[in-house]
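Inputs:
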Amino acid sequence: MQKIEQLYEGKAKKVYSTEDENLVIVSYKDDATAFDGLKKGTISGKGVVNNRMSNFLMQILEKNGVKTHFVEELNDRETVVKKVSIVPLEVIIRNISAGSFAKRFGVEEGIVFEEPTIEFSYKNDDLHDPLMNAYHAIALGLATREEIEEIKAMAFKVNSVLKEYFLKLNVKLVDFKLEFGRLADGTIVLADEISPDTCRFWDKVTNEKLDKDRFRRDLGGVEDAYTEMMHRVFGD
Ligand code: TMP
Ligand code: ASP
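Outputs:
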């Protein structure tokens, strides 16, 4: 399958049309941003890690009954995915307090929750992705009630599958962000990516951060963290 024309360039990926109107090719970049693009940088090799890891995890999820956009990995940075229209919600699941949750509620990072939490942000950089609840999303016509219910169920299923998977690799899945899309017939599928850009990963024993927080917080060892996660998942 060949790229025909660039349809879109995001902060971390480019999307190209193909000869099949229902399929697009995603190309992962090494560019990294944080804080709505205010902080910019490059994480060498990130595109390869995120492409390969996301594809691998989506295939695990498919085996566990979660529909995803994944079709075929073309090479280290490029993947064929189903064309979707993205539901403009960032769906965040948390197992352990960290990041904006810890800040918003004035608690330390590392509190293990009895039950995972879910929250939505409106995917809108100009408004800084404001937190919203399901009623707000429905009121604004971003998704229907039925779609929200399906997205919630899928997101919690993703959490239970991936939490268990990463624990076997001695990694705590602290929290993560998902995006969902609609196929032409309206079917909701998991889209975007699942990677160290979109998840918080802490080493099970040392709590060392193995994700993009190393970039966001200038902790150093950014590339090493991505490489380490690649080793844990693929053993190479
Ligand atoms: P937060 O604690 O900053 O709200 O982030 C929660 C999770 O979502 C964390 O795993 C990082 C991920 N995330 C993204 O993937 N994209 C974003 O723009 C933000 C703010 C967070
Ligand atoms: N999506 C954020 C940005 O706008 C990056 C992040 O914090 O993950 O740059």
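Remarks. The chain has a mean pLDDT of 97. The first helix runs from residue 46 to 63.
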